[in-house]
Amino acid sequence: MTERIRRAGSVAWAIVGLVTVLVLLGVVAWYLRVIWPPLxxxxxxxxxxxxxxxxxxxxxxxxxxxxxxxxxxxxxVTALAxxxxxxxxxxxxxxxxxxxxxxxxxxxERVDDWAEDSEQWPIPIPTWQELEDEFGNGEADGExxxxxxxxxxxxxxxxxxxxxxxxxxxxxxxxFYLLVDLPRLRRVALExxxxxxxxxxxxxxxxxxxxxGGFFRGQLLVAGIVGVLVSIGLAIIDLPFWLLIGMIAGLFxxxxxxxxxxxxxxxxxxxxxxxxxxxxxxxxxxxxIAQQIDNHFISxxxxxxxxxxxxxxxxMALLAGGxxxxxxGLLLAVPIAAVLKILVGHLWxxxxxxxxxxxxxxxxxxxxxxxxxxxxxxxx
Length: 380
Hints:
Blueprint: H1 2-31, H2 36-58, H3 63-117, H4 128-134, H5 147-191, H6 198-236, H7 242-252, H8 259-274, H9 277-302, H10 311-352, H11 357-369
């Protein structure tokens, strides 16, 4: 009992010290937040392409050449996809631009009608004007439409485009050098670890690599497959702009649980404003079928090496990530939650419960060999 109390006290002080260090690091990271977007993009590219580059290296191709070949392969696949989809997507985008004033007017009328019908509800639906005012698009005292404000908006938009362009230029460059130097960086990192802790650190690092790499590679592939499935389904029911909506659904599918349904909202809006309620119901059916195919057939295969998270943990992570970092935070919320699950679970089992590390290593190896159920664990 005395030993357990002493161990608990040591762990408590260690946690206090760790939290203090994390807070300080968080403050520093916030002041240096401009460097994180390209670094995160570079990290995602590294996790996605590292298995390909390593496979090439094992077959005698130098890492620099293998990294270049991997980049060329990604560019070739992207160019092929653009060549196949661009003509139809451009036509649909032009058609959507022509029809947008009518779609918007119809949507405004429907929202105002729903707002009027909900006046006696416990939570009434806001009118279109109230929604515009809430999100800052309404005019205030007739002064929001001045030339100076227009110029300011254009300047801000230009700066955002410039920053995004810098991110997409620096990220791949940083990732290239990291992919080439990964073996050397790994050796340097191992030299900094005490000999008695190397096995433990390597096992934990392997689990982290499996979780983060599995998420980025798996979610990217799943998003592409779901986007194709949704596009085909919407084309079958003859929904206008089906390719654009399918691309949006695939993009949002990278966010677990809520992303697929958020991606279906544009389809429902287009169905209500250009067709009828029956078509909107068919859109929901297509989205539901695509998600069932994903949940039961695609993700269990593609995401089988990813760490499983409870749905409640995923929802809380998405809530925290969206609140702190917006859409960017939503993208990183799940892998960060997976990392915390691994690290906190390992520290608790090793230093609080006193479980032998060998048993954890055996469990990790068995978990690697077991079939997966996707990023979100099956709790049914």
